[in-house]
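Entry:
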Amino acid sequence: MSVATAEVLSAPEFRAAGTDLSERRRSGLSCGSVIDLTASPDTIGIAWNADGAAQIGALTAIAAIASDARLAQAYPGIAAAAQGLATPQIRHMATLGGNLAQRSRCWYFRNPQIGCLKKGGSDCPARAGNHLYHVAFDLGPCVAPHPSTMAMALLAYDAKIVTDRRSGLSITDLLGDGSNGTADNLLASGERIERIELPAPLAGERALYKRAISRTHAEWPLVEICVRAVISGGTFQQVHITAGGIAPVPLRLAASVAALEGKPADASTIAQAAELATSGARPLTMTGYKLDLLTGLVRDLVERIAA
């Protein structure tokens, strides 16, 4: 183990529910001091503004988000994403802030004996190694996909992040654009997420979430997407499509959105948008299959929203 790797593994960390931190400490991937976070009225629960916009405390459990009827009505894509991740046991413990700030699931990163960019190393061993579950959009030196399902869903809703030091952060402000490779997020040392602010829902909008996984239950997504759309007069008026599992950060599928907005909500339009979902993709040797999954998921969800 290099000196740089040892320094990264011994850095102090925040603990909320500790669902990911506990696993990393058991494996020796994290061995620094732990700072326990205590919930307060500002950091737990769901609050509503007069215009129907929601604020979700960072220490709110994923299960609470998944089961909240008002949230499911106003932000169905977020509720469905929360319902789909991990297992019931983890959802009842894991927090929204923890999901956003969780560490990479890459097996090279998770091995404390292997150096990598995120542990102070000089390169990404997954790039030349086994990267079967890694990125299909190669945006930077690290090829591990970002693990946060909730970040992908919140990106579709243009959510803003409030920390104890800053406010108004977008998901991109929080996670970067994928070009860094040395960190899972752009939080400063000691900075913690306090709440997530959502804009008011669009009138008449519909939203769906879906993931492709390699086994039936309790699996990390190979590809996942969230689609929001307003359809009026048989035309796509406003569309948001975001994807996870395919890049170092959640992505907006801008080419697909451009193919839909202002166009008839028919089979031809949807088929073209689905084909454009892979625009800009640069798959690795083992990850080309993710492009077919992405195309299929976009087509499926947009068809269902337009039905």
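DSSP finds 13 helices and ten strands in the chain.
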